[in-house]
What does this fold into?
Amino acid sequence: MAITVTAMRSNKPGNMDIEQLRGWATVLDRAVIVSLVATVLSVTALATTTWLSFKAGGAVRAHEQAAFDRYKAEMGKHAVELEQKVSTERERTTELERKVTTAQGRTTELEQAAADADARAAQATRESATSREQARSAEIDAEEVRKRVAELAKLVKEAGARAPEPAQAPAAETAQPREEAAPASAAASPEARPSPTSPIVESLRKYAGTKAAVYVVDEVQDAAPVGATIAGYLGDAGWAQATWTWSGVGGIFGVVVLIKDGSDPATNEAAAAVVEALRAAGFNAAKGDWPAGASWGRFRGMLNGPQTPGPTEAPIRIVIGAKTR
It folds into this structure.
């Protein structure tokens, strides 16, 4: 822009005229216009810069918000996956705990089964030892019987082989029956009186002094000899026993060992020993209890036997019925 300045007439300040003032005013106006234009351009540039700054900031914020939203979505998804994994692990833990509990229960059952098996094995061992002992005793008894029979046969053979003299014939005939009588009697009723060394007597001797009442059912024909045999066992073992004949009852089979309600453990153990000993001897023996609530001193039918001791004093009753073998 060209600015024309009109020449001044004088350089002295006091001599300025209207044209000079107009020239200066024009110059000032133009300077102001230039300043305004510059100011407008500056403001425009500032506004443009501010607008661009706001726009860029919004874009950055939108980008940051989008990135944050993506991160938040990924974190939420990851959290859901973690919760699912935690839930799955909890279910697995619960299943493992249940399996562990089941395994512990099975272990307890196996331990109990093993203990039962050990007890059965020990019982079988004891029973086997008892059976072997009984077999040995039976062999000894059989051998004794064979010896006695052989001796009797020898005596009979010798008596038949000798030619008896006429004067001594009656004496020989009289002596021979006496020699044969004792072994024949022993062979005819071997159960009438057992040997003190019998296994049954030995097994019951540890309970010597135990009181027992033997009831022989009167209606059974072979009950009396069986009762005498069992009473002999108990007497040789040192038991305090007595025998009564029980009439007016029926329907009792085998040998029934009854226990008085409330008896002490020693009495129960002795009764169990009697049952086992009789079973080992071939009797059909069983252990039982007197009817609950029934008086031990009351019974059906009638008892015939000794007055002292009384038939209801003993805590063990051995009833001899039918089919004892």
